[in-house]
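User: Can you help me understand a structure? I only have the sequence.
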Amino acid sequence: MKAIHNPLTNVQLELLKTFSHQLSDTDIVELRRVLALFFAQRAIQQANKVWDEKEWTNEDVDRMLETKMRKK
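Assistant: Let's start by predicting it. Here is the structure, written out as tokens:
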């Protein structure tokens, strides 16, 4: 028997359950802001982890900014 694939992620399903009622436009803007901050903080944490693991300095980053690092 073939498993049924749910097209929604676990986050999408949870948000649908949590917000099954109407929100005001103001609340929607605030929710978007909160979610943006959440994901920004996660990205910063990951960047800091790489920075620490690689023991980068500000000089390393300045050098990277001046270097074409994109692969073709």
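Now, to help you interpret it: The CA atoms of residues 11 and 18 lie 10 Å apart. The mean pLDDT is 89. Let me know which part you'd like to focus on.
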